[in-house]
Amino acid sequence: MSVIVTERLTKRYGRRIGVADLNLDVPEGTLFGFLGPNGSGKTTAIRILMGFLRPTQGRAKIFGLDCWNQGHRLRRDVGYLPGDLRLYPWLTCREGLDIFGKVRRCDLRTAGNELAAAFGLEPDVKVRNMSRGMRQKLGLILALAHKPKLLVLDEPTSTLDPIMQGKLCQHLRTLAACGHTVFFSSHSLAEVERLCSRVVILRQGRLAADETLDDLRARASRAVTIRWGTPAAAQETRPPAALELIERSNRHWRGTLVGPVTALVSWCAQQPIDDISIEQPDLNTLFQGYYADAGDDT
Amino acid sequence: MNRGVMTKTWREIRWITLFFGLGLAVLELLLTYIIPTAFGAVPAEWFQVSFFQDFLKGLLGTQIGDVVGPRALTSLPWVHPVALALLWAHEIAICTQLPAGETDRGTIDVLLGLPVSRTRAYLSVTVVWLAAGLFVVAMGFAGNMIGSSLAPPDFRSPIDRVLIVVANLLCLYVAVGGFACMVSTLSNHRGRAIGLVFAVVLASFFLSVLAPMWEPARSISFLSVLNYYRPMTVLAGSSPPAADMLVLVTTGAVFWAVGAGVFARRNICTV
After folding, report:
1. For residue B99, is it within any domain?
2. Do A9 and A290 meet the contact criterion of CB atoms below 8 Å apart?
3. pTM for this model (two decimals)
4. CA distance A69 to chain B (A)
5. Which of A205, B225, B235, B256 keeps 20 to 30 A from A190, CA to CA?
6. Domain count of the fold of chain B
7. What pLDDT digit, counting tens, does each position of B53-84 carry?
8. CA atoms within 13 A on the CB side of B139
9. Most B CBs within 10 Å: which of A49, A75, A86, A140, as the mutation test of the B interface?
């Protein structure tokens, strides 16, 4: 079952494009990465999903409900953390749980206090006296306390320390394992790679890729280094089709794997080679390829 | 309505409501107590001076020259510019919170990320605003009653008459607040919304004061909200100004409804 579905979703701000023809399909129980550089349209798409912005064209649905017309109903089962989180200066964790519980018509105190203890947040500190990281923790607690079926997190780790990032990732993995869906926006590949099973990449408001992380890895380039037994072999041998040679030095070849790894290994077995190394897929290069030509803020 | 939004709104306005309520109570008490003495020292001839008459007429909304007396003077605390400024400042501060204030400080994402419709949130803030207004006006009434009990017997108005003035004042409060709510829904910046509403009520006040003295202002004085707020005629014993009150409440309700419509349909941009 799909939790989020968008069809040709488009938002224009005058002549500027926020998102264009965006088609998303987020299945239930997925840790879904929403990647893109600053200004690629991630936040615009999220704001449409949350019912803050009316799409210029197309439709967005969560749990089968229209995000613009039925936003308040679908948000019962959604936990949302804005990218640029601002909270009321007078709010404490305790008051926040009380007020949000009244809005949601459920008691959030038990679950919220457990999360506060897990995240190391004192319940009676006012937002005005909190650091940015503490505010982010409070925002996360308020988004998570009602155990939502869908979590929409817009760059949630931007102000968290590495320990807290680890705790959050662990918590999100547990939620996903229980069937909850996490829609995780980020511009950091490493973060998404660590957490998500499927990823969408936005570029200039348009969908650049929508794949599982395994598929992306399969497409990503892998660096290959070969050490030859003699300099003459290194200079005279012609590279196989599976290898794109970048550099040929005294006894070394450096290149990129462009075909099946088995083809390269079979070929190497018949050559006077001392050593070969094939590195992990380089997602960074792949993503940088997507991000290339990306404009400024959308 | 949503209890959570109401709790949040009340949490934000409770101190300013208490502050403005106490301020209005003290002001009403002092004016009610002091004005009879102060005006007693004004020579009777002054009330025949045309400019003085026009000024008081502008302030009180009716001719004072031939009816000046204790009753006329007891209405002054209800039209004193500081009293009106306190009341208006209080409601402008509350009514411009959603959505202008929330958008301005970026908290609207958190509020509207909750399962509450915009109309319900707007309605919830409105209920708190009206309750707070009722409290502030009630404090003014209490101050007026205490001051009145300390004033000479001639300067005490019947409580039923004062209550009609209070009702008229609440209608004025609704009209200005409804306008402030609408302006708030049209803006992303609270400062601009406050500035615009304040400019309009100030213009309305000046129009009312200038109307008796200046023909061009008189011809458009019906546009001033104070044209429909006449405590002196009420305290002088005329029938309750039902038509004026209806105009004020209807105006406020129309502005409020337009604001609700705009808020329900507008995009929420915090960047």
Report:
1. yes
2. no
3. 0.86
4. 10
5. A205
6. 1
7. 666 666 665 555 455 566 677 888 998 889 99
8. 19
9. A86
